[in-house]
Design goal:
With about 375 residues, the chain is mainly β. It has helices spanning about 1-15, 200-205, 250-275, and strands at about 20-25, 30-35, 40, 50-60, 65, 70-80, 90-95, 105-115, 120-130, 135-145, 155, 165, 175-180, 185-190, 215, 220-230, 230-235, 240-250, 285, 295-300, 305-315, 320-330, 330-340, 345-355, 355-365. Helix content is about 15%, strand content about 50%.
Protein backbone atom coordinates (compact mmCIF):
# COMPACT_ATOMS: atom_id res chain seq x y z
CA UNK A 1 0.00 0.00 0.00
CA UNK A 2 2.79 2.38 0.91
CA UNK A 3 4.58 1.79 -2.35
CA UNK A 4 1.42 2.48 -4.34
CA UNK A 5 0.61 5.66 -2.46
CA UNK A 6 4.17 6.98 -2.74
CA UNK A 7 4.22 6.20 -6.46
CA UNK A 8 0.99 8.16 -6.89
CA UNK A 9 2.43 11.04 -4.90
CA UNK A 10 5.46 11.16 -7.17
CA UNK A 11 3.21 11.12 -10.23
CA UNK A 12 1.23 14.05 -8.85
CA UNK A 13 4.45 15.96 -8.27
CA UNK A 14 5.45 15.29 -11.87
CA UNK A 15 2.23 16.94 -13.07
CA UNK A 16 2.96 20.19 -11.24
CA UNK A 17 6.75 20.27 -11.45
CA UNK A 18 9.38 18.99 -13.85
CA UNK A 19 11.02 15.90 -12.35
CA UNK A 20 14.63 14.94 -12.87
CA UNK A 21 17.54 13.44 -11.02
CA UNK A 22 21.28 12.95 -11.13
CA UNK A 23 23.03 9.68 -10.34
CA UNK A 24 26.36 7.91 -10.34
CA UNK A 25 27.56 4.35 -9.82
CA UNK A 26 30.75 3.84 -7.82
CA UNK A 27 31.04 0.21 -8.88
CA UNK A 28 29.66 -0.91 -5.51
CA UNK A 29 26.49 1.18 -5.18
CA UNK A 30 24.38 3.69 -7.05
CA UNK A 31 23.20 6.98 -5.58
CA UNK A 32 20.30 8.93 -7.07
CA UNK A 33 19.25 12.41 -5.95
CA UNK A 34 16.12 14.03 -7.31
CA UNK A 35 15.66 17.74 -7.93
CA UNK A 36 14.09 18.29 -4.50
CA UNK A 37 17.02 16.75 -2.63
CA UNK A 38 15.66 13.24 -2.01
CA UNK A 39 18.50 10.69 -1.76
CA UNK A 40 18.09 7.06 -2.92
CA UNK A 41 20.61 4.21 -2.64
CA UNK A 42 20.81 1.02 -4.70
CA UNK A 43 23.17 -1.90 -4.11
CA UNK A 44 25.56 -3.39 -6.67
CA UNK A 45 22.71 -5.43 -8.18
CA UNK A 46 20.57 -2.34 -8.74
CA UNK A 47 18.23 -3.17 -5.84
CA UNK A 48 16.90 -0.24 -3.82
CA UNK A 49 17.90 -0.17 -0.14
CA UNK A 50 17.00 3.46 0.67
CA UNK A 51 13.78 4.87 -0.72
CA UNK A 52 14.52 8.41 0.39
CA UNK A 53 16.48 10.48 2.88
CA UNK A 54 15.77 14.21 2.91
CA UNK A 55 16.77 17.19 5.04
CA UNK A 56 14.61 18.63 7.81
CA UNK A 57 15.10 22.12 9.27
CA UNK A 58 12.89 23.15 12.18
CA UNK A 59 12.76 26.52 13.93
CA UNK A 60 9.50 26.19 15.88
CA UNK A 61 6.66 23.69 16.41
CA UNK A 62 4.84 25.24 13.44
CA UNK A 63 7.84 25.84 11.18
CA UNK A 64 9.69 22.80 9.84
CA UNK A 65 11.11 22.69 6.33
CA UNK A 66 10.59 19.29 4.71
CA UNK A 67 10.83 17.56 1.34
CA UNK A 68 7.12 17.00 0.67
CA UNK A 69 5.55 20.29 1.69
CA UNK A 70 8.23 22.92 1.14
CA UNK A 71 11.15 22.01 -1.12
CA UNK A 72 11.54 23.74 -4.48
CA UNK A 73 14.51 23.56 -6.84
CA UNK A 74 16.97 26.46 -6.83
CA UNK A 75 20.01 24.90 -8.51
CA UNK A 76 19.12 21.89 -10.64
CA UNK A 77 20.51 18.61 -9.31
CA UNK A 78 23.47 17.79 -11.55
CA UNK A 79 26.43 15.44 -11.80
CA UNK A 80 29.56 17.52 -11.20
CA UNK A 81 32.16 17.23 -13.94
CA UNK A 82 35.76 16.80 -12.77
CA UNK A 83 35.04 16.87 -9.02
CA UNK A 84 37.99 17.98 -6.89
CA UNK A 85 37.17 16.32 -3.55
CA UNK A 86 36.05 12.84 -4.68
CA UNK A 87 35.73 10.60 -7.72
CA UNK A 88 32.01 11.34 -8.09
CA UNK A 89 29.85 14.24 -6.94
CA UNK A 90 26.26 15.40 -7.27
CA UNK A 91 25.27 18.98 -6.46
CA UNK A 92 21.94 20.74 -6.13
CA UNK A 93 20.03 23.14 -3.92
CA UNK A 94 16.48 23.76 -2.75
CA UNK A 95 14.61 26.37 -0.78
CA UNK A 96 11.13 26.78 0.72
CA UNK A 97 9.59 28.67 -2.22
CA UNK A 98 7.23 25.79 -3.10
CA UNK A 99 5.20 26.49 0.05
CA UNK A 100 6.44 29.98 0.92
CA UNK A 101 6.09 28.96 4.56
CA UNK A 102 8.68 29.42 7.30
CA UNK A 103 11.39 28.73 7.91
CA UNK A 104 12.92 30.47 4.91
CA UNK A 105 16.02 28.40 4.17
CA UNK A 106 18.37 27.58 1.35
CA UNK A 107 19.77 24.04 1.47
CA UNK A 108 22.67 23.04 -0.76
CA UNK A 109 23.70 19.41 -0.99
CA UNK A 110 26.80 17.64 -2.31
CA UNK A 111 26.95 13.83 -2.46
CA UNK A 112 30.54 12.59 -2.67
CA UNK A 113 31.43 9.09 -3.87
CA UNK A 114 34.64 7.16 -4.53
CA UNK A 115 35.54 4.39 -6.97
CA UNK A 116 34.34 1.00 -5.70
CA UNK A 117 33.26 2.57 -2.42
CA UNK A 118 30.16 1.05 -0.86
CA UNK A 119 29.48 4.36 0.88
CA UNK A 120 28.86 8.04 0.19
CA UNK A 121 29.16 11.26 2.17
CA UNK A 122 26.49 13.93 1.83
CA UNK A 123 27.22 17.50 2.87
CA UNK A 124 24.28 19.78 3.55
CA UNK A 125 24.80 23.55 3.71
CA UNK A 126 21.81 25.12 5.47
CA UNK A 127 21.47 28.92 5.14
CA UNK A 128 19.05 30.99 7.21
CA UNK A 129 17.15 33.11 4.68
CA UNK A 130 14.94 34.71 7.35
CA UNK A 131 15.40 38.39 8.25
CA UNK A 132 16.12 37.52 11.88
CA UNK A 133 18.26 34.98 13.70
CA UNK A 134 16.90 31.46 14.25
CA UNK A 135 17.74 28.42 16.35
CA UNK A 136 17.61 25.63 13.79
CA UNK A 137 17.14 21.95 14.57
CA UNK A 138 18.48 19.98 11.58
CA UNK A 139 17.97 16.32 10.78
CA UNK A 140 16.82 13.77 8.23
CA UNK A 141 13.54 12.13 7.24
CA UNK A 142 14.53 8.57 6.27
CA UNK A 143 12.40 5.91 4.54
CA UNK A 144 14.33 2.64 4.30
CA UNK A 145 13.52 0.16 1.50
CA UNK A 146 15.73 -2.80 2.35
CA UNK A 147 15.92 -5.38 -0.44
CA UNK A 148 13.39 -3.26 -2.35
CA UNK A 149 10.51 -4.46 -0.20
CA UNK A 150 8.34 -2.50 2.20
CA UNK A 151 7.99 -3.27 5.86
CA UNK A 152 9.43 -5.37 8.67
CA UNK A 153 12.73 -3.50 8.74
CA UNK A 154 14.65 -3.27 12.00
CA UNK A 155 16.39 -0.06 13.04
CA UNK A 156 19.11 -0.25 15.66
CA UNK A 157 21.17 2.40 17.42
CA UNK A 158 23.18 0.15 19.74
CA UNK A 159 26.66 0.84 18.34
CA UNK A 160 29.04 2.99 20.43
CA UNK A 161 30.07 5.17 17.48
CA UNK A 162 26.56 6.40 16.61
CA UNK A 163 25.82 4.29 13.53
CA UNK A 164 22.13 3.73 12.76
CA UNK A 165 21.65 0.23 11.33
CA UNK A 166 18.77 -0.65 8.99
CA UNK A 167 18.35 -4.34 8.13
CA UNK A 168 15.91 -7.13 7.41
CA UNK A 169 16.76 -10.79 7.94
CA UNK A 170 19.98 -11.83 6.20
CA UNK A 171 19.83 -9.32 3.35
CA UNK A 172 21.75 -6.07 2.88
CA UNK A 173 22.54 -3.86 5.86
CA UNK A 174 22.41 -0.08 5.53
CA UNK A 175 24.15 2.28 7.92
CA UNK A 176 23.72 6.03 8.38
CA UNK A 177 25.86 8.20 10.63
CA UNK A 178 25.98 11.92 11.39
CA UNK A 179 29.70 12.71 11.08
CA UNK A 180 29.92 16.41 11.96
CA UNK A 181 28.05 16.39 15.29
CA UNK A 182 26.21 14.06 17.65
CA UNK A 183 22.57 13.12 17.29
CA UNK A 184 20.27 14.51 19.97
CA UNK A 185 17.16 12.62 18.81
CA UNK A 186 16.41 9.45 16.89
CA UNK A 187 12.86 8.21 16.52
CA UNK A 188 11.17 5.67 14.23
CA UNK A 189 7.48 4.93 13.66
CA UNK A 190 5.32 3.07 11.18
CA UNK A 191 4.64 4.99 7.98
CA UNK A 192 1.17 6.43 7.45
CA UNK A 193 -0.26 8.65 4.76
CA UNK A 194 0.04 12.35 5.55
CA UNK A 195 2.58 12.04 8.35
CA UNK A 196 4.46 15.09 7.00
CA UNK A 197 3.05 17.67 9.45
CA UNK A 198 5.22 20.40 10.97
CA UNK A 199 4.09 19.91 14.56
CA UNK A 200 4.69 16.15 14.34
CA UNK A 201 8.09 16.59 12.73
CA UNK A 202 9.00 18.98 15.54
CA UNK A 203 7.93 16.46 18.19
CA UNK A 204 9.95 13.65 16.60
CA UNK A 205 12.99 15.89 16.13
CA UNK A 206 12.82 16.75 19.83
CA UNK A 207 12.22 13.22 21.09
CA UNK A 208 15.14 13.97 23.40
CA UNK A 209 16.92 10.61 23.25
CA UNK A 210 18.13 7.98 20.82
CA UNK A 211 15.61 5.19 20.34
CA UNK A 212 17.84 2.07 20.61
CA UNK A 213 15.63 -0.35 18.69
CA UNK A 214 12.58 -0.29 16.44
CA UNK A 215 11.03 -3.26 14.64
CA UNK A 216 8.54 -2.54 11.87
CA UNK A 217 5.53 -4.85 12.10
CA UNK A 218 3.53 -3.93 8.97
CA UNK A 219 4.05 -3.85 5.21
CA UNK A 220 4.02 -0.05 5.35
CA UNK A 221 7.44 -0.03 6.97
CA UNK A 222 9.25 2.51 9.13
CA UNK A 223 10.03 6.20 8.91
CA UNK A 224 13.07 7.35 10.88
CA UNK A 225 13.63 10.94 12.01
CA UNK A 226 17.01 12.23 13.18
CA UNK A 227 18.04 15.55 14.67
CA UNK A 228 20.98 17.25 16.32
CA UNK A 229 21.07 20.01 18.92
CA UNK A 230 19.82 23.39 17.60
CA UNK A 231 22.34 25.75 16.01
CA UNK A 232 21.99 29.54 16.10
CA UNK A 233 22.08 31.14 12.66
CA UNK A 234 22.11 34.85 11.93
CA UNK A 235 20.40 36.05 8.73
CA UNK A 236 22.21 34.57 5.69
CA UNK A 237 24.54 32.57 7.94
CA UNK A 238 25.21 28.97 6.89
CA UNK A 239 25.77 25.76 8.79
CA UNK A 240 27.47 22.70 7.28
CA UNK A 241 26.72 19.13 8.29
CA UNK A 242 27.88 15.77 6.96
CA UNK A 243 26.17 12.37 6.93
CA UNK A 244 27.70 9.04 5.87
CA UNK A 245 25.58 6.38 4.12
CA UNK A 246 26.94 2.85 3.66
CA UNK A 247 25.77 -0.57 2.51
CA UNK A 248 27.13 -4.01 3.37
CA UNK A 249 26.15 -7.65 2.89
CA UNK A 250 26.20 -8.01 6.69
CA UNK A 251 26.65 -5.80 9.73
CA UNK A 252 30.44 -6.20 9.79
CA UNK A 253 30.77 -5.15 6.15
CA UNK A 254 28.44 -2.19 6.66
CA UNK A 255 30.40 -0.98 9.70
CA UNK A 256 33.65 -1.36 7.78
CA UNK A 257 32.23 0.83 5.01
CA UNK A 258 31.11 3.44 7.54
CA UNK A 259 34.70 3.49 8.84
CA UNK A 260 35.98 4.01 5.29
CA UNK A 261 33.53 6.89 4.87
CA UNK A 262 34.79 8.46 8.11
CA UNK A 263 38.34 8.40 6.75
CA UNK A 264 37.17 10.20 3.61
CA UNK A 265 35.33 12.70 5.80
CA UNK A 266 38.56 13.52 7.64
CA UNK A 267 40.24 14.12 4.28
CA UNK A 268 37.42 16.42 3.19
CA UNK A 269 37.65 18.42 6.41
CA UNK A 270 41.46 18.58 6.21
CA UNK A 271 41.20 19.99 2.71
CA UNK A 272 38.85 22.69 3.88
CA UNK A 273 41.11 23.55 6.83
CA UNK A 274 44.17 23.72 4.56
CA UNK A 275 42.39 26.35 2.50
CA UNK A 276 41.98 28.49 5.63
CA UNK A 277 45.51 28.34 7.01
CA UNK A 278 46.99 31.36 5.27
CA UNK A 279 44.83 33.85 7.14
CA UNK A 280 47.13 36.80 6.42
CA UNK A 281 46.38 36.75 2.70
CA UNK A 282 43.52 38.29 0.75
CA UNK A 283 41.80 35.41 -0.97
CA UNK A 284 38.80 35.11 -3.27
CA UNK A 285 37.55 31.59 -3.86
CA UNK A 286 35.86 30.22 -6.96
CA UNK A 287 32.10 30.54 -6.71
CA UNK A 288 30.22 27.30 -6.12
CA UNK A 289 28.51 25.89 -8.03
CA UNK A 290 30.10 27.05 -11.25
CA UNK A 291 28.48 26.98 -13.75
CA UNK A 292 25.22 27.82 -11.96
CA UNK A 293 21.60 28.25 -13.02
CA UNK A 294 20.21 30.77 -10.53
CA UNK A 295 22.21 31.18 -7.32
CA UNK A 296 25.80 30.64 -6.30
CA UNK A 297 27.97 31.21 -3.25
CA UNK A 298 31.19 33.23 -3.08
CA UNK A 299 33.75 32.86 -0.31
CA UNK A 300 36.63 35.20 0.51
CA UNK A 301 39.18 35.81 3.22
CA UNK A 302 40.30 39.16 4.62
CA UNK A 303 43.75 39.64 6.20
CA UNK A 304 42.40 42.37 8.47
CA UNK A 305 39.48 44.67 9.24
CA UNK A 306 38.63 47.20 6.55
CA UNK A 307 36.38 48.50 3.82
CA UNK A 308 35.37 45.76 1.40
CA UNK A 309 33.52 45.78 -1.89
CA UNK A 310 32.41 42.78 -3.91
CA UNK A 311 30.86 43.52 -7.30
CA UNK A 312 29.69 41.56 -10.33
CA UNK A 313 30.41 42.64 -13.92
CA UNK A 314 29.20 41.39 -17.27
CA UNK A 315 31.47 40.42 -20.15
CA UNK A 316 31.57 44.06 -21.34
CA UNK A 317 32.84 45.25 -17.98
CA UNK A 318 29.58 46.86 -16.89
CA UNK A 319 28.69 46.55 -13.21
CA UNK A 320 25.51 44.52 -12.74
CA UNK A 321 25.44 43.97 -8.97
CA UNK A 322 27.03 45.21 -5.74
CA UNK A 323 27.08 42.39 -3.21
CA UNK A 324 29.20 43.97 -0.48
CA UNK A 325 30.17 47.58 0.20
CA UNK A 326 30.90 47.90 3.91
CA UNK A 327 33.46 47.53 6.67
CA UNK A 328 34.10 43.89 7.54
CA UNK A 329 36.24 42.04 10.04
CA UNK A 330 39.30 39.91 9.46
CA UNK A 331 38.68 36.29 8.53
CA UNK A 332 36.48 34.20 6.24
CA UNK A 333 33.21 35.42 4.74
CA UNK A 334 30.62 33.92 2.40
CA UNK A 335 27.76 35.46 0.49
CA UNK A 336 25.02 33.99 -1.68
CA UNK A 337 24.30 35.67 -5.01
CA UNK A 338 20.96 35.22 -6.78
CA UNK A 339 21.21 36.00 -10.50
CA UNK A 340 17.61 35.32 -11.53
CA UNK A 341 17.37 38.75 -13.17
CA UNK A 342 20.42 38.26 -15.41
CA UNK A 343 20.68 36.53 -18.80
CA UNK A 344 22.97 33.55 -19.18
CA UNK A 345 26.59 34.17 -20.05
CA UNK A 346 30.06 34.90 -18.68
CA UNK A 347 30.40 37.20 -15.67
CA UNK A 348 33.23 38.38 -13.45
CA UNK A 349 33.23 39.21 -9.77
CA UNK A 350 35.85 41.42 -8.12
CA UNK A 351 36.80 41.77 -4.48
CA UNK A 352 38.45 45.04 -3.36
CA UNK A 353 40.17 45.47 0.00
CA UNK A 354 42.33 48.56 0.61
CA UNK A 355 44.50 48.71 -2.51
CA UNK A 356 44.21 45.02 -3.34
CA UNK A 357 41.91 43.45 -5.93
CA UNK A 358 41.04 39.81 -6.60
CA UNK A 359 38.70 38.63 -9.35
CA UNK A 360 37.26 35.43 -10.79
CA UNK A 361 35.14 34.33 -13.73
CA UNK A 362 31.78 32.56 -13.41
CA UNK A 363 29.27 31.11 -15.85
CA UNK A 364 25.52 31.58 -15.61
CA UNK A 365 23.42 29.05 -17.53
CA UNK A 366 19.82 29.90 -18.45
Amino acid sequence: MKKTLLFLAVMLLCITKSYSQASYNTGALTVEIDEYGGIDLLDSNGVYELYRAAILVGTSPTAVFDYTNDAETVDQTTLVTNPTSSDFEIYGSVDNSFSGLPPAVLVKFNAFGWNNGNYIIVRFDVTNAETSAVDASIGLDISSYINETWGYDTIENTFPDGVIRFHKGNVTNMGIKLLSASLSSLYSFEWYSGYEVDSDYWTWMHYGSLQPFYASNTTDGPVTITSQNPVSLAPMQSYHLYYAFALGKNVQAMLSNITAAEAKYQSLIAGIQDNKTAVNELKLGQNSPNPFTSSTTMAYQLPGDGLVSLKVYNALGNEVATLVNSNQTRGSHTIQYNANDLPGGVYFYALRYNDQVRSNKMFLIK
